[in-house]
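Morning. Coffee machine broken again, so started the prediction first thing and wrote up yesterday's gels while waiting. Chain of 349 residues, entered below exactly as on the submission form.
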Amino acid sequence: MNLKSSVRLLMPDGTVRAMPVETYLRGVVPHEIGAGAPLEAQKAQAVAARCYALTARRHPEADADLCTTTHCQVWTPATDPRSDAAIEATAGVVAVFQGRIIHALYFAACDGRTRSIEEVWPQYSVPYLRGVMCPAPQQPMRGHGVGMCQTGAMAMAAQGASYEAILRHFYTGIELVQGRYAAQSVRLVSRWLPVEEAGALRLALLDVMEQPTFALEGEETLAWRLLREERFTARRRALAAELSLPGVTVRLHAPDGRVFTTLSGTDAAYGVGGLEIATPRMGTYRLHVGGQQFPVQVGDGVTVLTLQHAQAPGQMRLVSSPLDEESAAEILATLEDRFAGLFTPLVVA
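Came back before lunch.
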């Protein structure tokens, strides 16, 4: 089975960093299950985290797969040789169900049994996410309860179970296979277009497909200036913005460290480049547009910023996130049906 070779990680400062999957896992495993956990439990965690990283697409507006918090998987630059050994021992191993890599949910501890996914999220039905008895001593539930119980995994490892047995216990009916990372990846790129057309095309692609995500090449070079800041009474608390261009990535950094990402043009109520983001609390936020940031004080009601691009390059193009060759060919065929001749594949290392 071919695996994509890297993930795109949304960093705390709002930037996105591409990172090889196995390198990424070094910053995940010791922080999700603990470097002091039994080796077989850490191996099970490495496989689960690898599967999660390969299937998660949780920050598409930022052209990122994952963030570094519990919203996705906790990642820090700190590594541990004990966890490194578990990752190396399972390098490329993934859990699959009916030929597809599973979405390997996991959580900290349970009350003696895990939950089927329908018990927590009734709108979903996933055959391999079934409730099972947990071998760990009963304790208060910590986490959503679906998938692998990390405390249960450690208990099984302490009793002599292999990582394969642990994973097969918590994920019903799976197989474990050895994947291999693709030697090269492909990006799909559009023709060079006027800036307004490129931004509008980026928004149009959101209606056509969820993946891959497309970025505007050169949007970081756009210069912006704040024309005005207005406040309106409303029953909701939100920050809205009216940008002079659609399809531009906008990130809002909240006082509590959370980052909200969207594209200009996703809320037509504020014009061609309009957007609105719900703000969870009052305080000083930082709005990042391109390489600039604008501090804004958010209170009750809706705060609206109007931003104008001072000077834009004559043309820009859309560039997709990295894809394996097979996926790129399938997606390119879909794009050809809607945008004939607009996109071409570009092979990257």
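The chain has a mean pLDDT of 92. Going to sketch it on the whiteboard this afternoon.
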